[in-house]
Amino acid sequence: MLKKFIHVKLLLKITQEYVNSHFTFAFSLLFSLLFLAYSYNYTTHSWRPIVLLFFAIYALTTLYIGWLNLRIKRDLTKFSEIQAGTRRFGYPLLLTLLSGNIFATSFAFVILSNKKTAEYTFAVYAFITQIFIFGIGAFNLFKPYVTNLFLLAMGIFLILACFYAVMIVLCAKYVTTTYAPKWMFIPSIILLLATVTGNLFATLLGYSLLQKARQVNPSAIEKWQTIWHKILRNTMAVFGLFFIIFMFSLSVTSNWTFEYDFAIENNYSALLQAPSLEYPLGTDNFGRDLFSRIVFGAQISLIVGFFSTIIPALVGGTLGALSGYYGKTTDNLIMRSLDILYAIPGILLAIAIIAAFGANTVNLIIALSVGAIPTYARTMRASVMQLANFEFVESARALGASDTAIIFKHIVPNSLAPMIVKATLTIGGAVISTSSLSFLGLGIEPHIPEWGNILKVGSTYLETHSYVAIFPGLCIMLLVLSFNFFGDGLRDALDPKSN
Amino acid sequence: MVTIKNNVNATEHVFFYRTFQKLMHNRYYKALLFLLSILVHPFSYFFYKKTKNSNHYQQNFEQRCLTYKEQGLYDKWLKAFMAQEQAKASFFHDNVQNSQLQETATALADAKLTRLVEQDLAKEGLEHLNYWQFFNQQLKNTKFIAVTFLPALFFYVALLVLANPFLQFIVERLLQSLIVIIGVATLVFTILYISPFDPARNILGVEATPEQITNFNRLHGLDQSYLTQLWHTLTSLFTFDLGTSFAGKEDITQSIANKFPVTLEIAILSLLMAVAIAIPVGIISAVRPNSYVDYLFMFLALIGLSIPSFWQGLLFILTFALKLQWFPATYNPSNWLSLIMPIVVLGTSITASVARMTRSSMLEVIHEDYIITAKAKGLNEFTIISRHAIRNAMIPIITVIGLLFGGMLGGSAVTEKVFNISGIGSYIVDKQFIPDIPAILGGVVYVAITISIVNLVIDILYAFFDPRIRSKMRKS
Q1: Which of A353, A356, A469 has its CB closest to that of B314?
Q2: How many domains in chain B?
């Protein structure tokens, strides 16, 4: 009896569907409560009907998931596996995509398929991302005019979404963890081409399928699968990755569907409008559409975040590798000089650099990069020092490889994992620093729509029009949170020792 | 080149000898000690040369060589080496001349002879000495110390200090911090020096005449060379006299001294808040890993890490100051209530980091063998955690707190701007628009110095409190 009890308990713990249902339940509940709290206007003592409707939908979803959770538990206790009948109850949950409940939708996809390959998950998220991109773009229909490319772009988005939906079914049917049929070659090429829309899930799916369909290097496939299996097991990391890719795709495609003029041209007939269908998040003090500004702001944040991570990673990584490999005087010289950089807080160093060279995007990237070099150098140095004593390095040296070749062909590729993890975790910090400096008036030029700039405007209208400050901040927080979640997942998957 | 090893006697003084011998292996210390005892060296070198010329050693050496040759041992070795070389040549099918083989064999035999003779002589207390070894030997001599004590006072003081591994560590660490601080000042100065902006134009306006600009530059020393300006800046930084700011003619040191305590007060209170909240949270999370409480705490911690502090500040002002009217929206030194929001905002991200760090550090410690031992002894969970786990888990956390404190001082600029606090951060931000070089420089460098001092103190405290570091130091 006790043995069975422990068995069931363990089974519940390792069944992804069960854990996921708990998680989805908690989040849906949280969101319904938030909607409930917001549905009542305390100053005018009236209800907000639209918010109340959302509350009802979310509350219903929550109840449904709670019931499904109990059913999964019963199945696992009775039959030790989830019955096909229970899985079928996932179909109605797919409708939650329309209410924007991404947690419930992804849970629906999790429960619908009993074999979870990385490809299936990629296809699911490629589909969800495309639908979201389409939905966000559709808000432009309420504008006085749209871009020339609008219809074409939206059409492509719709076709791609349908294609991804087909891919979900195909992946669930034909793809296993080690094998994909030969004809998958054709869709994988189309998927790789879809990268131009910024939907990196499609890229990942295409690459994965291509590898499996060609069946050239089984060990590479295995390695790729194991890493992604570990990352995708971590639900929060997946949502993090989803939001990052969604933001990336949005900033890639925003020029096609969003009119830049609404974000930068002053419109004195619509100053500080409250949220409406034409202006989904209202307008600012120059009558510029906040929604468009925030969408375009994602571009800047991602660009600055990316470059101010990649530059110090390259510079610091090289310095750290040289320092760790040569040791002694080289090491002392490099690391002691970097100690000087390390002693100045990043923001202050950035302020000093901007004070000296002026505030613009390029200077901002440089300023943020310089301060981040020492941390990367330290990370790289530590792993290079560890690796330099391994036998494969010795054998490379015995074969007459030059120091440069040993460092950059043998040691560095093997010590990239901690660097990648570190980089992912610091992009978030760079995004915060960017907007902080813009907020202080030291970052991006004020006319460019950037989240910190929008917030700066919002801070002056805090008392009367608080939404101008709230929405961009929310975006910053979500983006940084996503990078942190994804970075944590990546660390657990690639570099478990460092935690 | 010779000295006869004295038999150890009671009056011999080995303290300085041992310390010097140990330190001589490090060339930086060697150079430092040489500089400190520079007055003694001409004389001791003279004596060294004198003893070198006495060919006591050479005589002994030759005599010993002769003995070996007379005993016929040398010829025996020569034959053996010859046979060895021939065998080698025939094995590799090398066509080597006989004379060549003879040569190699002789060289090998000679080397063996020299080695043996040197060993024998060393046994009798005769050995080669270079100058440093000679000098080191002298330090055993009480008379030598007495004579040289005054001229090389600093040398002996250095030896006294460096003899103790703790003191040595502290001195090294202090020196390192000093170098870093000078480096920081130089770096920030250089960045501001190569700036393409012209402060004179910015302050005097576009209509300023060339004379006015020259006058301004001369007044603030901006027309001097890089090195002169750098030297002037460094001395003024360390003598706390930065002169007046470009705009407004205020005394910079005075302004910084007025603003620094405000920033420091808020930072320290934030740190206290962070420690008070984060450590219990981290411990609870680690004790019940993967529970709902753990998930909730870690989720909140991640949100705390991800929230931009200026946005959090604005939300707080909106909610607690404008809507609920619990706290005043801006900082006011006479009202302690106005401190609460800045403290919470500044402390949020550090609280989150410390909580995450505490959790992972505790998780690591909890799986150590000594915790299992404690469990096996039958201790209850509370005792295990409070007596055995926390103390060991705290070590990495304290380092992290030290590093985060630095980031917090730097990040205070944003929080100060949001709450309108006139601290050092907002001072630097205000001055950078001009750019008021001495003010920015002073602000940044003094913040960096504070951070260096905090980290220095933490490192030194470690050396005293962590038994592992202590024992490692003793061994080395």
Answers
A1: A469
A2: 2
